Amino acid sequence: MLNIGLLGCGRIGQVHGRSIGQIDGARVAAVADALEAPARTLADKTGATVMGAEELIASADVDAVVIGTPTNTHFDLIHAAASAGKAIFCEKPVDMSADRIRDCIKAVEAAGVPFMTAFNRRFDPNFANVQARIAAGEIGGVEIVTIQSRDPSPPPISYIQSSGGLFRDMMIHDFDMARFLLGEEPVTVYAVGASLVDPEIGQAGDVDTAAVTLTTESGRICQITNSRRASYGYDQRIEVHGEKGMLRAGNVLENTVEIATSTGFRKAPAQHFFLERYEAAYRAEMAHFVEGVVSQKHISPGIVDGLRAQILADAATRSFEQAAAISLIEPNGP
Amino acid sequence: MLNIGLLGCGRIGQVHGRSIGQIDGARVAAVADALEAPARTLADKTGATVMGAEELIASADVDAVVIGTPTNTHFDLIHAAASAGKAIFCEKPVDMSADRIRDCIKAVEAAGVPFMTAFNRRFDPNFANVQARIAAGEIGGVEIVTIQSRDPSPPPISYIQSSGGLFRDMMIHDFDMARFLLGEEPVTVYAVGASLVDPEIGQAGDVDTAAVTLTTESGRICQITNSRRASYGYDQRIEVHGEKGMLRAGNVLENTVEIATSTGFRKAPAQHFFLERYEAAYRAEMAHFVEGVVSQKHISPGIVDGLRAQILADAATRSFEQAAAISLIEPNGP
Amino acid sequence: MLNIGLLGCGRIGQVHGRSIGQIDGARVAAVADALEAPARTLADKTGATVMGAEELIASADVDAVVIGTPTNTHFDLIHAAASAGKAIFCEKPVDMSADRIRDCIKAVEAAGVPFMTAFNRRFDPNFANVQARIAAGEIGGVEIVTIQSRDPSPPPISYIQSSGGLFRDMMIHDFDMARFLLGEEPVTVYAVGASLVDPEIGQAGDVDTAAVTLTTESGRICQITNSRRASYGYDQRIEVHGEKGMLRAGNVLENTVEIATSTGFRKAPAQHFFLERYEAAYRAEMAHFVEGVVSQKHISPGIVDGLRAQILADAATRSFEQAAAISLIEPNGP
Amino acid sequence: MLNIGLLGCGRIGQVHGRSIGQIDGARVAAVADALEAPARTLADKTGATVMGAEELIASADVDAVVIGTPTNTHFDLIHAAASAGKAIFCEKPVDMSADRIRDCIKAVEAAGVPFMTAFNRRFDPNFANVQARIAAGEIGGVEIVTIQSRDPSPPPISYIQSSGGLFRDMMIHDFDMARFLLGEEPVTVYAVGASLVDPEIGQAGDVDTAAVTLTTESGRICQITNSRRASYGYDQRIEVHGEKGMLRAGNVLENTVEIATSTGFRKAPAQHFFLERYEAAYRAEMAHFVEGVVSQKHISPGIVDGLRAQILADAATRSFEQAAAISLIEPNGP
User: Where's the GFO/IDH/MocA-like oxidoreductase domain (chains A, B, C, D) (predicted)?
Assistant: First the structure.
């Protein structure tokens, strides 16, 4: 039985708590949160003990920690958990600064503890199926990857002001997906963007509509589009064109019902947002983590994947600001 | 060059004229119609000579006739054309009476002329593809056939009063399709129906909503539904379930465009009616006839297929009237 | 908190136990099974007490019972639970004999206890959506209902020998769905069938391929097809044609991935069988039961729905045996 | 009756000849080709007179010319036809040099003759429908356009050596489509590409896999991908995301048939190549030209559209060669 301590009992902490409840061989042993109420609620549901964060990390009853606290706390919690020898599951982004992530990597490697960066979309059954079939050679060598990602509506301006910008808070998922599907590291990044959805977003210095082109050393191409708005639900699609054919995963609709009337044939909107769309992915990523820690198997994506996505987000931000393509091939590399 | 004489220059005659114009090795040599205007129009377009029906059938310049006149004239025209040694392409139904069709069969067989009953749907590229793949064994032995057929809106009451009823004027196409797909002759027929679309149709003694179940000797099953109404266009679908899988052909929509909004994902209605939906089928059936006559190849569906569909339509009508299943296995058979 | 006692801890009992675990306001309080092991497993997972069936029904700690035992035990358990004043959730079929179900109805009505017949498909989010939209008038008056239902592969011959036959053990779900969608009671039943999948099924006196036509008093039509075989997964589709249009719910595929190669565009098979396909339906039906009992709201489908489906299954069996349509309009009604 | 002279009787000339044959109010009056045979064949089919190119342009029997000759002959033919006062329908590209196209524009404007640049895809019923609905405001202001365009297989190396490269010979269609859908002129172009399909293409100095990003002054974004290879047929898709929703046009498959087996649900490949896929578009563009000339209505796309697409293709080529984004906003503009 793997005893897991949850650091952070907000929305994502509750998702992880529910996932752990459905996994044989793991249980929520302890929970910690800056606020009393959410920690108490989660404890009541799972039978866990409410602790302070430091106490939880130090507890002999905790084998592994799930870090679901605000991003600016990740750095200290990772260092503390690594020192305590706990296996670590950490929400993305690991940190807003690539250099600080490099520092975390040193701490984790020195401690030799398992570490998983929670890029949940890799565990979506549809996207995972696409990647597995590319890896199995069903479409031969990858040539072009297309990723479409649109949120149903923009977040509050307050969030945007501190998020690091669209390329870092939203497209970072797509950068990880691009790496997952391309099978090679991107070497150039070109980003464009505009504020078409809400002028306040533009005034806050960010974009709400953006597109990026990545290329790899062998010439593979990835195009990504992002929008903070989609009237028809959470738009999450990938398509991969290869030597022998094409693999794609479409949206997940609310149901399979179709109505036909004089205006045509109509299906339901896409599932509303990430909690519905990625419910199965959240369960699968936690099962992968538990299995990896318990059976001492390779866990992926790891902390280096967290760094590489952050480097791409930084480069895209720079490309947009400079209106120029950015090369990632540097003398001393990333 | 096959010289074709068109008997009947109404809507369907014009369709066939247009088809012949696109076939290498055939031309419209002569046209005949009870009315001057449509014959003249078609002649102008095709370079054909306007003649009387008898003159056309007798003309040495005509190798084959296309009969697109009202059903009650088919009998005499078939006999005359057979006597004159012309190849015959005849619109369905061959005749409203199975006995009179049997008489036509004798005349055609005595004359030894090629004869094609114009069940155009067999030549729809989608339905033809389904049948060819059944024949090629892609789904193994056929078990269940489902046919859905709905017109966009009911015909005028005057038409219904003389059409012989839904089972004979509309479902006859589906009976032929059932035989085409089942690969065996039906041995039982059970029909139900009601007047749900327009009470006047009921008052005229017909139904506008109907369903039929057919079974074959080996136990294969076919279910057919018909309606005189479909708000979403001409509804024409077939589905065949076999030992190894299922083959189906869906509707043909007006275009491939899809719109996504807050109400979901919407595609265009189905193509409006038979002239659009079966445009390619009309061309293909005429090409099959021309090729068959010119190269002395087997032409199918033939006149016996016209008879068998009529027998099924008669049996369905009887089943509906008697509210009982009808067996087609009789001492002296059909 | 509604305290539920599970009678039967086999596969379906475990499904219901899992569902209850996800419903706020309900818990598995007690479990009973003829075998020790499955009862113990379920108890460990849920914190329930293992009891004998009689003890469980009599227990003051149990407010409601879920009957998931073999069909031939339902009769006695229903009577006992009704006498004990417990709310009852009973797997379908309520009993193999319509007369014995009538006897159960009397007991349940005399006791005044809530009763739910577990026709889970009514709670499938797709099918429920179709029914709700019919009820809301989206397609106007219903005209034709088409139900396709195919299992991935036949059950063991031993099951078939005691199941009452395809019309009673498999198509009974479709009879309930037909009533759910037609909005009127069927008044005629016509059934055909054959043994095309496995000759042993035919030798056991049953069919594996079948079709039924139902009509209602106002003339609405329902066509149902069943097969014990479908290579492409569990085939579960409904389609309803009405005055203003058509509503349909297609299959649920294993994922949304599509591959395009020289052979075309290929999607995944349908979800394999009922445990995957109806996972959400099982949760929703139990939530409906709990909500109904706790809030004293109307629970549907009730015990009379169990009777009506059984009457249709009996009539279909008779129709098949007699090769004749059966009328359900009798002097003293069903 | 509009008398049309065909300059060039190769594959595309024959397509236009066939289209004219189906348009009321127009006929092929004269044909010219460097080779005798194709001119003779087309003349036999249409009743046209075979002439030399100069004679044809000068002929009083010719009201309009269709230029379907090699690109390097367009310049002289356009000047001659404009001088002769003929309406001009010209295959794309108008010329390989933007400056020479500017020269043609002067000649055409001086002569005041109608001119149509044959960007056939604008007349595809699916793409035309998308554009019309954008114009009608169905999705509000355009935000992101995605265009996917893949040929089934690469052309011969000899073609590639003289075509001007992928951005000019293949993506030029997509540049015109981008302008058609964006509703604004692009102001920046960024292109990437590689030779992944055939190394010989790379050795010939071209790419076979490419992607371009365009932006407009108001911030609208267009992403285009091209490949010289697609195993699943001719891949031609557009998608437009706007304020209120999304419009897209998918591929046109060979038929509507779907097979379901243990490997899933499979549909036909996309129609093989442009002659099948754009058959209706070729008819519609010619009908638009004839209608425009006869009724003196606005004809679009015109010669300036030919120039603007060429400017984008030149800029993309430059962007690829320089590995840098190109701005099209220059002091004296294009």
Answer: 127-248
Q: Chain D residue with minimal CA distance to B140?
A: D261
CB atoms within 10 A of CB A20: 23
Q: What per-residue confidence (pLDDT) applies to A288?
A: 98
Mean pLDDT calculated for residue range B289-296: 96
**Token pair 């203003």 in the structure block, residue:** C244
- Write out chain A residues lying below 8 Å of B266, CB-based: 263-267
Every domain of chain D with CATH number 3.30.360.10 lies at 122-280+309-327
- Interchain CB distance below 8 Å, B213 and C190: yes
Distance CA D99, CA D101 (A): 5
Mean pLDDT computed over C184-210: 97
H-run or E-run covering D176: helix D172-182
- Put simply, the answer to whether C266 touches D269 (Cβ < 8 Å) is no
* Chain C adjacent subunits, 3+ CB pairs under 8 A: A, B, D
Cβ contact A221:D225 at 8 Å: yes
- As a whole number, mean pLDDT of residues A97-109 equals 97
pLDDT tens string D93-116 = 999 999 999 999 999 999 999 999
CA distance B106 to B85: 14
* Domain limits, CATH 3.40.50.720, in chain B: 2-113
- pLDDT per residue over A17-40, tens digit each? 989 988 888 999 999 999 999 999
The answer to whether B220 faces chain C, any CB pair under 8 Å, is yes
ipTM of the complex: 0.94
Which residues of D fall within a CB distance of 8 Å from C269? Answer: 260, 262-265
The pLDDT value given to residue C334: 44
Structural fold of domain C122-272+309-327: Dihydrodipicolinate Reductase; domain 2 (3.30.360)
Highest CATH level, class, for B122-280+309-327: alpha beta
Residue B60 has pLDDT above 80, yes or no: yes
Structure token pair of residue C175: 């009879």
What's the rounded mean pLDDT across residues C302-331? 94
φ and ψ at residue D293, rounded to 5 degrees: -70, -50
B140 touches chain C (CB under 8 A): no
D residues 232..251 contacting B (CB < 8 A): 244-251
pLDDT above 70: residue C332:
no
Whether D246 sits inside 8 A of B252 (CB atoms) is no
Other residues' Cβ atoms within 10 Å of the Cβ of residue A175: 27
Nearest to B264 among A260, A261, A267 (CB): A267
On chain A, the residues whose CB falls within 8 A of the CB of C126 are 255-257
